[in-house]
Amino acid sequence: MERYKMIKEVGDGTFGSVWRALNRDTGEIVAIKKMKKKYYSWEECVNLREVKSLRKMNHPNIVKLKEVIRENDILYFVFEYMECNLYQLMKDRGNLFSEAEVRNWCFQVFQGLAYMHQRGYFHRDLKPENLLVSKSILKIADLGLAREISSGPPYTEYVSTRWYRAPEVLLQSPVYSSAVDMWAMGAIMAELFTLRPLFPGSSEADEIYKICGVLGSPSKDSWAEGLTLARAINYQFPQFAGVHLSTLISSASEDAVSLITSLCSWDSCKRPTAVEALQHPFFQSCFYVPPSLRSRAAVTRTPPSAAGTRGTLEQKSIRRYSVASKPTSNFSSPKLHASLSTGVQRKLEMDNQDANKNDKSLKSSAKQPRYRPPARNNPTSIYMGRNARGVSDATEKLANMTVGSGRQSVRQPLPPPMKAGGWHGPSDLFLGRSQEIQPGRTYTRKVVG
């Protein structure tokens, strides 16, 4: 640890504290998480969930673990440094975020979650404090509660901060999946629009009460499994009709409300996966999702190459994006080589062969051109269903034609043939509404490391 100079403590949590530090050799600013528990063996360190999960992930929207150091039985995690988290941004905010800002952040979270879920992990503790931001870049952090999907149930009851906890977990279900992350994202997304939590329960029972007040009480049709879970713990749901989310999130667009509604579904099977969320119309102005992050059912589809696909995209956006099964994977932990001497600094190199192997498909897909969906007022939409070559042939034929009407022929210039890749004109990505909000929320949460 002599290579690092501790500058300032920036967070303190249940399991450790986080410091802003300086790498004396490179001058780089890093974040160092100092664990409170003592670790007496290196094997105990590398078997931690946070270490095992982060070693297998290399994604621009997941915080990078640079190295792990054990010195004098104290464990340190060295991360890349991020300026703040979403909770801090909302706490200090005077007016609402624009929809473009919310869209940008949520799109990045869903990309990170899609990568994480397809590699066999789900986070289980998503909340604004664990979403780190530097300028316009967002990264998922704190994978201390991350769990392998392949590990199988039963899982622990307490998995996340109460306000973002899925109803199946509140009802003590021993079986849950990556859908708990999707519920948390629905609650976080709503909070980004309003700067207030959607379900601010003061206890587990009050949390369910708050959820029923917004979504309405579950029924046998909407969530039969939930009624069974409630009977098992002798719990009776309060009876509410529920309200439409558009009345609670007035600044959000219809597409935004639609996505939040689907994410906050009582039944976990009815929530979209991270891959499906990326294909929602709310993200239509964002970049094209590469095949490596698409669901198995969507891999056979290719990027649209003409404005003629606009109708197909709109039709698909109306219905829910169905996937046969959620991807699961089994991973074996790579062998680690470390010094056997005790009380001496040890490092865990994160650039291992397994991570490189897992990311080949992601790197290859990154080379593909990014797709931007067609704009609504696309002037080239008159070529719907035609290819560029056919338009060129027609242009040549019309150019050689003359009309014998006694008038001079006036040749009207035709629009250029449409190129593959869709419409690249201006989009409304940066349009958004912003309005004043009355102060009324008191944040009492700690910033967790």
TrEMBL record:
Pfam families named in the record: Pkinase
Comp. bias regions, Basic and acidic residues: 349-362
Gene Ontology molecular function: ATP binding; cyclin-dependent protein serine/threonine kinase activity
Keywords assigned: ATP-binding, Kinase, Nucleotide-binding, Phosphoprotein, Serine/threonine-protein kinase, Transferase
Record region (Disordered): 299-318, 349-385
Catalysed reactions listed for this entry: L-seryl-[protein] + ATP = O-phospho-L-seryl-[protein] + ADP + H(+); L-threonyl-[protein] + ATP = O-phospho-L-threonyl-[protein] + ADP + H(+)
SUPFAM superfamilies named among the record's database cross-references: Protein kinase-like (PK-like)
Residues noted as binding ATP in the record, renumbered to the chain: K34
Membrane-spanning ranges: none
Domain Protein kinase: 4-283
Entry keyword annotation includes rRNA-binding: no
Its EC number(s): 2.7.11.22
Gene3D superfamilies: Phosphorylase Kinase, domain 1, Transferase(Phosphotransferase) domain 1
PROSITE patterns found in the cross-reference section: PROTEIN_KINASE_ATP, PROTEIN_KINASE_DOM, PROTEIN_KINASE_ST
Family: Belongs to the protein kinase superfamily. CMGC Ser/Thr protein kinase family. CDC2/CDKX subfamily. Belongs to the protein kinase superfamily. CMGC Ser/Thr protein kinase family. MAP kinase subfamily.
Protein name: cyclin-dependent kinase
